[in-house]
Design a protein that fits this description.
It contains four helices and 23 strands. The N terminus is likely disordered. The protein is globular. The protein is mainly β. It starts with a helix and ends with a strand. It has a 22-stranded antiparallel β-barrel. It has a single domain, classed as Maltoporin, Chain A (Beta Barrel), CATH 2.40.170. A hairpin with a 5-residue loop joins strand 20 and strand 21.
Length: 535
């Protein structure tokens, strides 16, 4: 009975009245409309490289896909539900690399219809936007980031390889962050940045039982950063900040205030050393003020190699961030390990697009060029930009999160190989709530998720590509909660029918083994084809 109730809840359309996402869409669409009014707006031929275009680039598109699955409801073998899934997806991409507004806006509306099934038709939204507006030249700016995607509610619930399948453990999550800031100088003595940030997260549904929770959060922060004149070998900095995080389901607020000074030494262009120290007041363990201190190191022996390390002591748990990046002519890698307090403001999983965008963030600083490169690489590999590369879960409480990531890409004349792995360990803080509505961390003190994906793409002709990928995701908890394991094998081919037309065909097999409290094991096979027309 509970399952039937969950299945009747559907993701809200982007403009649904009363939905907080309406504001998110209006802000993002407002900036996108501002881009449209820029005189430099232009469209080029579809064969041109998007990253090399100047001004504003509009790319409307529509995609039609058909999927046959032998297990739409993701049920055990004896109760499979075979069905066809028809999806019509109009979308729009806007990018700008000049003018007062820079960045990218990408939105897709999926209309999903089920044939040979009693499932209702529904809508899904996909949004990825990152824009910076320069309101006053070299002084006043505003950053806007927005995301709408499909996300697992629980790490221990049923996982699925495709958001169009009928899983009760999936919800549409919408995140909007707006951050205005003012940069300036205090004579020749110092520079400053005064920044405010507001963020909200909203999800369509909240699961059931102990893992229920709306997933809705609100966060606000204010910070002032002072720093010495650039170019000095020995420099200083002072940062003061305050933030508040509110969880709608539990009614819990977390507040943090800090004043931290820094001393930085740059003996050489390749090296940088720093020390930090100050005071911090947080209520993760109840209101208390404690000392904070740490150190950091930066090493960049050349434009292709970067290493950074940062460590800081906190009363609720030490934080660190280690990062190594290296790039060669045909090979690039990125390794990262971090530990910090997470208040669940962002989903713990990353989409294929986010994973590659993060990997190439320092290698291609220009967001527009990087966006074009990442989307081109995903298209060549036959990967959905909005599919999650990890399971993840919605969090309704604060946790100490330790995450390690490794990603490798090798590109040859005809072959492209990508390998990614992640290990995410979330531990509940002592004073976090442990009742209905606090999510997975109400069931266990620790949630560990590990995953790996390997993809091999081969360029058959200048217009055709083939790709095979295998992924495995694993979730485990303490205290007899159990866990689950999902393995997915995908093979697909893409073909460019014209300068603005692409076709794709693929096969997918998924096996999900569940030893958790939910016991929702299944196996699914699917065949799919799609046609995309850009205008």
């Amino acid at each position: 009975m509970m399952r039937a109730n969950v299945l009747r809840r559907r993701p809200l359309p982007c403009g649904a009245p009363g939905s907080p996402v309406r504001a998110a869409c209006l802000v993002a669409l407002g900036l996108a409309a501002a881009l449209a009014q820029t005189p430099a707006a232009a469209q080029d031929d579809g064969t041109a490289a998007a990253g090399s275009r100047k001004g504003i680039v509009f790319t409307p598109r529509v995609s039609v896909s058909e999927t046959w699955t032998d297990n739409l409801a993701l049920s055990p073998d004896n109760s499979r539900d075979r069905a066809f899934i028809t999806t019509v997806s109009p979308g729009l991409t806007i990018s700008s690399n000049t003018g007062a507004i820079r960045g990218s806006f990408d939105y897709t509306l999926d209309g999903i219809v089920y044939t040979k099934s009693d499932r209702d038709a529904r809508l899904q939204n996909q949004l990825s936007t990152r824009l910076t507006a320069e309101l006053v030249q070299s002084a006043l700016f505003i950053d806007v980031t927005g995301n709408i995607s499909q996300q697992s509610i629980s790490a221990f619930g049923q996982q699925s390889p495709d958001g169009k399948l009928d899983s009760p453990n999936r919800t549409e999550t919408r995140t909007l962050q707006v951050s205005p800031y003012w940069r300036g100088r205090l004579g020749s003595f110092a520079g400053f940045e005064l920044r405010a940030m507001g963020q909200m997260r909203n999800s369509s549904e909240g699961g059931a039982g102990a893992t229920s929770g709306s997933g809705n959060t609100k966060e606000g922060s204010l910070s002032l950063n002072l720093f010495g004149p650039a170019g000095r070998e020995l420099n200083w900095g002072l940062n003061t900040s305050t933030s508040r995080m509110h969880f709608e389901q539990t009614g819990i607020d977390y507040r943090t205030t800090s004043v931290i000074g820094s001393l930085n030494w740059v003996p050489d262009v390749d090296w940088g050393l720093g020390l930090t120290g100050g005071r911090e007041r947080s209520d993760y363990f109840g209101p208390e003020a404690t000392s904070v201190y740490g150190a950091n190191l930066r090493w960049s022996p050349g434009p292709r190699t970067k290493f950074s390390a940062e460590w800081q002591h906190h009363s609720y748990g030490n934080s660190h961030n280690l990062s190594f990046e290296h790039r060669m002519a045909q090979f690039s890698m990125r390794a990262n390990s971090s530990q910090s307090v997470s208040t669940g403001e962002t989903p713990t999983a990353a989409t294929n697009y986010q994973l590659l965008d993060l990997q190439f963030g320092s290698l291609e600083p220009d967001p527009v060029k990087r966006d074009a490169f990442v989307r081109g690489l995903l298209a060549a590999l036959g990967l959905d930009p909005n599919s999650f590369s990890g399971t993840g879960f919605l969090s309704n409480t604060a946790s100490l999160q330790r995450r390690s990531d490794l990603s490798l890409i090798w590109t040859g004349p005809r072959v492209t190989v990508t390998l990614s792995g992640n290990d995410n360990n979330s531990r509940r803080l002592i004073n976090s709530p442990t009742g209905v509505g606090s999510g997975d961390l109400a069931l266990t003190d620790r949630v560990r998720q590990r995953g790996a994906t390997v993809s091999v793409g081969y360029r058959l002709t200048p217009l055709a590509n083939a790709n095979v990928s295998y992924s495995r995701q694993n979730s485990r908890g303490d205290g007899g909660v159990g866990g689950n394991d999902m393995r997915t094998l995908t093979a697909n081919a893409t073909y460019r029918l014209g300068p603005r037309t692409d076709a794709a065909f693929g096969l997918r097999q998924t096996k999900f083994d569940d030893t958790s409290l939910f016991a929702t094991s299944y196996q699914e096979n699917a065949i799919y084809a799609s046609l995309t027309q850009r205008f």
